[in-house]
Amino acid sequence: MGPLIDAIxxxxxxxxxxxxxxxxxxxxxxxxxxxxxxxxxxxxxxVAHAALPGVCVAFLLxxxxxxxxxLVGAGVAGVLGAVVMLAIERNTRIPADSAIGLVxxxxxxxxxxxLTYIAGSGDADQAGLESYLFGQAAGLLESDVAVMAAISAVxxxxxxxTVRAMRVVLFDPRFGGSxxxxxxxxxxxxxxxxxxxxxxxxxxxxxxxMVAMLxxxxxxxxxxxDRLVPLLALAGVVGAAVGVAGAVGSTAAGLPTGPVIVxxxxxxxxxxxxxxxxxxxxxxxxxxxxxxRLAACDAALLAxxxxxxxxxxxxxxLARRGWAEPxxxxxxxxxxxxxxxxxxxxxxxxxxxxxxxxxxxxLDDPREPGPHDLAAVxxxxxxxxxxxxxxxxxxxx
Length: 397
Prior knowledge:
Elements: H1 2-7, H2 12-37, H3 41-62, H4 67-91, H5 96-119, H6 131-134, H7 142-171, H8 173-178, H9 183-222, H10 228-253, H11 257-275, H12 281-307, H13 315-320, E1 324-325, E2 332-333, H14 335-357, H15 374-391
Antiparallel strand pairs: 1-2
C-alpha cells in the first residue's frame, strides 16, 4: 500500500484515511447494489448492527484489538444475524420487516451490553473499541487498509465472475431456477457479499451509519442507468468519490469522517433524485411544463386554423416563437407560423391514424410514443405504413 499512499498529496495519516475511504466506498457501492435491487436494503442495516457483538466477542476471545480478528468476529456475527433473519422469515409467520427489526434490536442490544462489560473490566487494551459503534477513521493504520483492500479485491472478483447469474436470479429467480441456476446458493452469496461490505466499513463509519454507505451509491446510480453492469460500476465510482471527498473534507474541517461521508452521500442522492436526466424530479417537472406549453401552442394553432382568429392569451406565446406578427386586422401567421400549423395538422392526422391502426404495426421499439414524438419513435418506414393503413381505412393489402 506504500506507493499508493505516497502518491496521495496529503500527510501520511490523512492519506491512509483517504485511501481507506476510497476502498470502503467502492466496495459498498458495488456489493450494496444487490441488496438494494432485491428490496432488502434494511438487511444491511441489521447486519451492520449485528456485527457489533461479533467485534466484542472476538476481543474477549483474543484479548487484544487485532484488526483482522475483530473483522472476522464482525463477519461471523453478520452472517449469523442474516441466517437468523432468514430463519425467522421462512419458518414463522413473522413478516420480513419485523424479522429485520427483531434481529437488529437484539444483536445491537447484545453488542452494547458487551461493550459496557468490556469497558468495566479494567482491560486497558479495550480503549477505542467503541469506535466500531460510531466509526473512527482517524485510527486507521496502513495494515488496516491493506486488509480492507484484500477483502474488497476478493469480493469484487467474485462479483465479476458471477454477475451474469446474479442478474438472472436478482430479477427473475423462478426463471433462474428453471434453467438450472443454483438460486439459493446465489442468494446466500449476495448476502455474504453484503456482510463483507459491512465488515470493511464498520471500522470507518460505524455500525449505526453503515447502512447509508450500502444504499446511497446504488440509489444515485439507479437514477442514471437501467442496466446492471453499468449500475454496479457507477455505484462503485460514486461510493469511492464520496468516500474520498468526505475524508478530505472532514480532515480539513476537523470533523468526524464517518458522519461527513454519510452526509455527503445523502447530498449526492438528493441531487440525483432532483436533477437526474429523464428521472429527476426537477427534470420531469421541466419536461411536463415543456409538454404543456407545446400542447397549448398546438391548441392555439389549431384554433387559429379552424376559426381564423388567434386566442388573445396565445398571441404573445406564438409571437415569441416567430409564428405570429401584427396585421391590419389583428395578428396573422408568419411563414414559420403557417409551417407550424401545417406540421400540427400532420401530427394530429398521424396520431389519429396511430390510435386507430397502431396495433397492426410490428414495432421494434418498446417505448410508448406520444403525440409529439410519434414520428421519431416509429421511423420513416413505419410512418409510411401507418399512413397507408389510414388511407385504405385499415383494409388488408
